[in-house]
Each structure stands twice: as C-alpha cells, then as structure tokens.
Amino acid sequence: MPGPSPAPSPIGATAPSTASSSGGGKGKWIAGGALVALLGVGGIGVALSGGDDGGDDVVATDTTIAADTDTTAADDTTATTVADAATETTVAESDSTGADAPATVQDLAQATVQVLTADANGNPVCVGSGSLISDNGRILTNAHVIDPSAPCGYDQVLIAVTVDTAQVPEITYRADILTVDVALDLAVLQIAERVDGAALDTPFPTIEIGDSDLVQLGDPLRIFGYPTIGGDTITFTNGSVSGFTQTAGVGDRAWIKTDATIAGGNSGGAAVDAEGRLIGVPTQASAGDNADIVDCRVLTDTNGDGVVNDFDQCIPIGGFINGIRPVALAAEVIAGADDAEPQRVFDIAGAVPSVSIADAVFRWPQWSSGIGDEDVPIDDITVGVAGQTELCFSFDYTGMADGVVWSALWFVDGEFVEEFSLVDITWNGGAEGIGYWVCALDDAGLDAGNYELLLQLEGETAYGESITLIADAAAPFSQLTFVNASGADICILAFSQSWASYYGLDELRDDVLGPDGTFAAIVAPGVIDVRALNCDGDVVGDLSVEIAADGAPVTVTLDGTVG
How many domains does the chain have? Predict the structure, then answer.
C-alpha cells in the first residue's frame, strides 16, 4: 500500500503559533509546536504509518536484558541451543522431487554471525546478530546493532563466527558498514579483514534469501542468533507466524509477528522458514507476560492532577508477540551496498534529527472504518459500530523526521492491547505529509468499547485520540452543536468522552469558528469534555456536557466561560 503523500500540510493563516507545548492530560491544555497542534493522535495496530524498533542490544559484559526485550519464551515457544538439536539436523525434510535439500541447523548456525561493536583495543561494547547473505562476506543486520549511541559507543565492528555449535563463537573478522536504512532499521555490513591479519578465507557460508511475501499465518519459523538469555553459544527458538502488521509507507507486511522468543542480542539475526531460507530479520521484542516488568511507562494521568509525569503510575507494555522485519523490505539496502562507501562507524544520531512534541505539528484528524484503494479513508466517522473489521485514524503532520523513535499504543476500555500496538518503532513518513493513517484490524470484527490511541515521541507521550464503538448500529446518536458566543474567533475546538486521557486534535481542522458561528458533530451517549481556544491561544470554553441515550440533540454555548 502506498505511503502518505509527500505534499506539505497546509498551515492555516488564521492560526498563529502562539501556544506552548508541554506534557499532560485533560487537566492541562496541550498544544504541539503551533496552535493548530492540539494533543491528540496516536495509535497503531495491525495497520499504521511507519515502523521499526528502537533496539534491544545489550552491553556485552552485562547479562541484564534490555528494557524492550523478551525475557522469557512464550508457553508454546522452545528456546534451544543448536548443540542440543541432535535429533533435528535439518529445518525441513527434503522432498522427493530432487530439489536441493533444505539447509541444516549446522549450516544455518555457521551463516549466522555475532556482531560486536568494540573499542579501539577490540574490547566488545555491545552485541547483536547478523546473517551472511553473500559468499564474499556481506551481512544483513539491524541498523540499531551498529548504533554508536550510549552505552554502545564504539570504534570498530567485529564479527564472531560459530565453528562448533557447542562452542562460544570466535571473534575472527573486522567489518565495514556499507548501507543503513534507519527508518526500516536495516543495515548491510561487509567483512573487510581478519583480526589476525591473515588472508580472508572466502567463500563464506550463506543463508539463502527467501520470499517473505509467501509466508502465511501459522507457518513455522526458526530464529537464529546470539541472545544473552541463551548463554554465549548460538541459540535458536521455535515459533510460528502469529500475524502481520500493515503500515502506510511500508506495505501490507511491514512486520511479521511471531510467538518465537526474540531477546537481547537476537536483533539482526536470522528468521528462517521451513526450508531454511531467510525470510526476515528479528528486530522488535517485547516484555514477557510472565516475566518481570521490563517496560513500564507513564502513559496517562493516573493520579488525576492534570499532568502526565513521573508521579503517575506506570503501565506495563508488551506481551510475547515479537516483530520480524520481512526480508523483502531489505532489497534496497542490499542493492545499495554495491556502490556504497565503506564506513567503520555509522553516526545514526547525526543522521536522525531529534524530534520532540514541541517540534511536531499534527492536524486534520479523521476517524474512519477503513482505508480505500487510493490510500484515503473510505468514510468520516465520529462513532463506530462493533463488528467492523477496521478502525483507522488519519492525520496531516509537519516537523517529523525519519528514524525518530516513536510508539503507537492502543487501549480498549483502559486495557493495553498489544496486538494493535507497536512499541519503539522508527518513523519513516518523512518530515511532512498528509493522510498518514494508523489502523486496528481484526478480521473477526472489533469488539464494542472505548478505544484510545496514544502516541509517544522518543519516549514522551505526545498526544492521544479516542472513539467509541457501540454494540448496536441502530442505537440513537446525538447531534452536539457548538455555538460561538465568545465574541472572538475560535481556532481550536477539541472534545472527547470523559473516559479518554486527551481531548484530541482540533476538530475544526482548517476552519475558524467565527462569532455566532456553529459547529456540529455526531456523538455517542456519555459525558463529553470540551476545550476551545481563540486564535490568541486563550481558553474560551472548558466544560463537560452530558449526552443522553435518547438521541436528543444538545447545544453547547461557548461564551468565554472557563470551568
């Protein structure tokens, strides 16, 4: 599916950039960058607009699993050292057609390397994994594996190989960095020389690249790599394809979801199919349900003081579903390696500008029940109905940057839904665009309930958006009409159900609600919280209104009264 248009979002001339930006929930009015950027978008699910993970490498001398990694295998996932796999010497039985026999576990182990960033003296700093994809020594891995940011500052990249699967891999080579795609979190390295100065012993063992577009739900997967939970030797985990994540800007298969364990150090390794072909790069890992809480974040105003900060209760994020970047998405970064200038260290921090909630501006909010063939919403809804298979939110944006780490988190009736969410992914929608969308997908039909999406930029909650899916399509809705009696133009009008953490984006979009003007919306029964600002950034409406279940219309007068 094509990504969002690169055309810039129009900036309304009547909406001056007067509002400040700060963290907070409904108790505090929040704008991002410009007045038109009320706090309120967020979310991601089985569909979104961008995606990759922030990294799960661990310091080589420390056995602690990084915060976003899975510390335990799921109940139906088996982690096994390759040396213990004596009874399973091939990934799949060879067929009777005379085709080449599938790669053996030993073959795959020898073509899966350990990637270590090291100081000038060769002392390892951080560790990841990689797959040899060419017999001249090219390695496909994750970009964050060679990220020099703290605590992984390094002077060189070393490659350790497995000769005996029962033995610790030996640091044998020094590698250069050829190509890096920060947004997709992929990189290609080139083995440049032996650390002992001897001649390179080519050809190298390789893993055949497969077709990730052919992978189906339920297909078996094997993950090869060097996670710290597996000890020092190479480890593989068994699992299956749990689903796919669709993203605008990447495609229908931006992620392959799996229940196979992906832990610290596994990043950049090999995800292979039943025939031993490389179909993806293990990239994104989450916290285990039965493990210690390793990823607990402050997301909402749990203590009711109007500010989202460290005094609020953190919310555990993650279960056991992990992410694999499909190898089909690596085609460009692999092809680009042919003409690349080798580097010893890649400055990811220098390549990715920092973006805060003060920089990013989000506008034109729109809920819909799906995205059409032209990559635009098929409708414009303010209330959804249970049973619809998609729930999508689209928006325009400026002030973003490819490679910035963000999270899009779904909550239903206050409960975090991992299946709809991605944590610590990288933005790849460009600096500005229109119609960027995020969707929750469920082929069986989405349940009735209150849906809220929160989006974080570099670990800080930036904004949220909410909608209700009702159980009965025939249930009466109400028309909520706002009348501007404040005597001034209103540039911002945002409202949401009282259960939501954030008001949401400006419902006026590019319009201005002039004196005595009206604005109408269809809402579900419940208590609606309202916030309105004039074009100087002053609050001219801050109130709650109850919507009855009988479908009767309701009128709200915005007369400058606050509270």
Answer: 3
